[in-house]
């Protein structure tokens, strides 16, 4: 229950010590009435069986108070994963409850930072993270709870101003923002999602706040009661990835101002300051995805209940939408991705999809996209090979299009990282080669995240061009990544081991200084064949994929090592039902 007298004495001990009891008593009685303490406590008692989002909805219903959000905004709320929502704070109580209701309709795990007074409302306790905005005391325990919530992949709502908006010559605006939320987001590597609330309090509130701000805070219950039958509009922006918040050349104060400018621009329907990502689509119905896979060609089954399917998706089916969702999710985790709600393009409709399906969990573990060259050659030019959007095929490269497959868009969803999932996808490729034994080449782009520091990217490119490069220039990137002569000389001196094995050790050691390792696919592809069986033709930047580096790789199937053939193609170590 709310005990205003105790809250006031705790917040303003000097006031109560400096004035006689009859004066402070009259002061408390006045604010109990303005605060509607008895009516609030009566409502809390009547609805004590409710908790969190349900209680917030009950309050909004009691006041017949509504919030409006458009469908696009609703789709911008991620259904899972850590995220920090930030918002302006025009009202005080009802905007907080509206955000709990809105975000909670998608994210039952939502938490909101609230002051000690709100924390006294028992039904809201499991939704609140306590923070003292009245006395502005630092609370280590509060910080610990916030970081724990983000570690648990939960959603938290923060009002950066820490108090209700005030009237200014330029309109009703937040007071100075505190930078705590920015530190939390960066430390937890959580995206920030801005929300703008269109609303205002009464002239009485703004008048009192100009006289003495702390007293105005005690009028917020009065403001709540005078908003019966009213509504607000909430604008939900797009997510700002935490990588886009790392601005070493800008001071924290200026970055805070940029975020505030971004939020207010969204409120006006304008483009924000920061680059954003759209929220992923909702997960597709598992039963529909499963049905679609069961109608596809099953290439094999692993010993731990994972099936390998080869599927065709001629339209945007639930299976393809789920593949697109998980692709984007997986690529974003390594600093890549399209930034769209799902990663699907026109090529998906005439390529095939190698899918690893977990029968127990009933979900996709990972997938490859497979383009069959003999079929793709029959299509109109603009619909043929995905790699033609990134690379130019030069004279003499035509042999790649005979009895070959273009591989790409491979992923294992984060939930299954650290398992044998990628290995199982290779069993799937092996099963495909067993099904189509005349396949001569595997080719496609292999990505290197732009999140790798420039030096790390250049070391990897130099190493793989040195040992697996193709000097003939048969395939060239449309946006080539070239090293300068000076850089070439520096890396020549660095990689002085004299052999692949020794230079590989040098590469690993230098990457470890950045706490990085060689990208898995680069390592796996390069170790797949005998000498000359793997070639990197060129490297280029993909601006539509978070500026990642694409290496164009070609694998000659006839030169795959015998040990790899036995493991993946002939099936001596393959999953039980993938054996020939």
Shape from CA axes? Answer: elongated
Note the main sheet: 8 strands, mixed
What's the number of structural domains?
2
CATH class of the largest domain: Alpha Beta
What topology emerges from the helices and strands here?
Elements: H1 4-11, H2 13-18, H3 21-34, H4 37-46, H5 52-62, E1 66-68, H6 71-75, E2 83-87, H7 94-104, E3 111-114, H8 116-119, E4 128-130, H9 140-151, E5 155-158, E6 166-168, E7 171-173, H10 180-188, E8 192-198, H11 203-211, H12 213-217, H13 220-225, E9 231-236, H14 252-267, H15 286-294, E10 297-301, E11 306-312, H16 318-333, E12 352-358, E13 363-372, H17 373-376, E14 391-393, E15 404-412, H18 421-435, E16 441-448, H19 454-468, E17 475-477, H20 485-494, H21 500-512, H22 520-526, E18 534-542, E19 548-556, H23 562-569
Parallel strand pairs: 1-9, 2-5, 2-8, 3-4, 3-5, 15-16
Antiparallel strand pairs: 6-7, 8-9, 10-11, 11-12, 12-13, 13-15, 14-17, 16-19, 18-19
Keywords: Acyltransferase, Lipid biosynthesis, Lipid metabolism, Transferase
Pfam families: Acetyltransf_5 (PF13444), Acyltransf_2 (PF19576)
GO molecular function: acyltransferase activity
Compact summary:
This protein has 580 residues and is α/β, with parallel strands linked by helices.
Task: Describe the model.
There is one protein chain. This protein is elongated. A hairpin with a 4-residue loop joins strand 10 and strand 11. About 1% of the residues have low confidence. Helix 5 crosses helix 7, helix 9 runs parallel beside helix 10 and helix 18 crosses helix 23. The protein has two domains: 218 residues, Glycerol-3-phosphate (1)-acyltransferase (3-Layer(aba) Sandwich); 293 residues, Gcn5-related N-acetyltransferase (GNAT) (Aminopeptidase). It has 580 residues and is α/β, with parallel strands linked by helices. The strands form four sheets. An eight-stranded mixed β-sheet has the order 10-11-12-13-15-16-19-18, with helices on both faces. Strands 1-9-8-2-5-3-4 form a seven-stranded mixed β-sheet, sandwiched between helices. The chain has a two-stranded antiparallel ribbon with strand order 6-7. Pathway: Lipid metabolism. One of its GO terms (molecular function) is acyltransferase activity.
């Amino acid at each position: 229950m709310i005990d205003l007298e105790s809250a006031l004495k705790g917040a303003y001990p000097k006031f109560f010590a400096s004035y006689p009891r009859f004066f402070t008593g009259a002061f408390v009685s006045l604010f109990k009435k303005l605060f509607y303490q008895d009516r609030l406590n009566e409502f809390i008692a009547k609805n004590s069986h409710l908790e969190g989002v349900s209680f917030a909805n009950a309050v909004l219903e009691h006041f017949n108070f509504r919030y409006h959000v458009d469908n696009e905004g609703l789709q911008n709320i991620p259904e899972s994963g850590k995220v920090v929502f930030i918002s302006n704070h025009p009202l005080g109580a009802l905007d907080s409850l509206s955000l709990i209701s809105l975000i909670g309709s998608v994210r039952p795990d939502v938490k909101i930072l609230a002051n000690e007074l709100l924390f006294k409302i028992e039904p809201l306790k499991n939704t609140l993270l306590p923070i003292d905005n009245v006395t502005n005391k630092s609370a280590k325990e509060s910080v610990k709870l916030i970081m724990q919530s983000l570690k648990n992949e939960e959603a938290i709502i923060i009002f950066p101003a820490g108090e209700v908006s005030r009237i200014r010559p330029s309109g009703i605006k937040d007071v100075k923002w505190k930078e705590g939320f920015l530190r939390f987001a960066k430390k937890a590597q959580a995206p920030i999602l801005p929300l703008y609330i269109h609303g205002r309090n009464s002239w009485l509130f703004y008048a009192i706040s100009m006289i003495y701000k702390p007293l105005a805070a005690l009028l917020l219950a009065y403001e709540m009661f005078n908003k019966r039958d009213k509504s607000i509009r909430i604008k939900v922006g797009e997510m700002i990835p935490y990588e886009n918040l790392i601005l070493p050349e800008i001071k924290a104060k200026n970055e805070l101002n940029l975020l505030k400018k971004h939020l207010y621009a969204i409120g006006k329907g304008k483009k924000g300051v920061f680059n954003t990502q759209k929220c992923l689509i909702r997960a597709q119905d598992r039963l529909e995805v499963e049905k679609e896979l069961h109608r596809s060609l099953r290439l094999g089954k692993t010993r731990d209940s994972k099936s390998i399917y080869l599927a065709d998706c001629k339209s945007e089916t639930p299976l393809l939408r789920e593949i697109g969702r998980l692709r984007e999710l997986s690529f974003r985790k390594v600093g890549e991705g399209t930034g769209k709600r799902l990663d699907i393009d026109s090529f998906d409709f005439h390529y095939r999809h190698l899918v690893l399906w977990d029968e127990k969990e009933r979900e996709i573990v990972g997938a490859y996209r497979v383009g069959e060259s003999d079929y793709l050659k029959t299509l109109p030019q603009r619909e043929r090979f995905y790699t033609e959007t990134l690379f130019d095929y030069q004279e003499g490269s035509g042999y790649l299009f005979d009895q070959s497959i273009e591989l790409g868009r491979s992923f294992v969803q984060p939930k299954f990282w650290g398992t044998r999932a990628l290995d199982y996808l290779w069993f799937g490729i092996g099963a495909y080669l067993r099904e189509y034994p005349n396949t001569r080449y595997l080719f496609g782009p292999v990505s290197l995240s732009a999140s790798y520091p420039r030096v790390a990217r250049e070391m990897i490119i130099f190493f793989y061009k040195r040992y697996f490069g193709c000097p003939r220039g048969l395939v060239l990137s449309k946006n080539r990544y070239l090293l300068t002569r000076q850089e070439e000389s520096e890396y020549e001196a660095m990689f002085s081991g004299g052999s692949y094995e020794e230079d590989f050790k040098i590469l690993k050691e230098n990457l470890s200084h950045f706490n990085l390792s060689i990208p898995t696919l680069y390592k796996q592809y390069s170790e797949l064949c005998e000498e000359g069986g793997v070639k990197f033709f060129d490297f280029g930047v993909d601006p539509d994929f978070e500026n990642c580096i694409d290496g164009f790789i070609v694998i000659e199937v006839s030169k795959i090592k015998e040990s790899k053939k036995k493991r993946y193609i002939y099936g001596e170590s393959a999953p039980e039902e993938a054996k020939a």
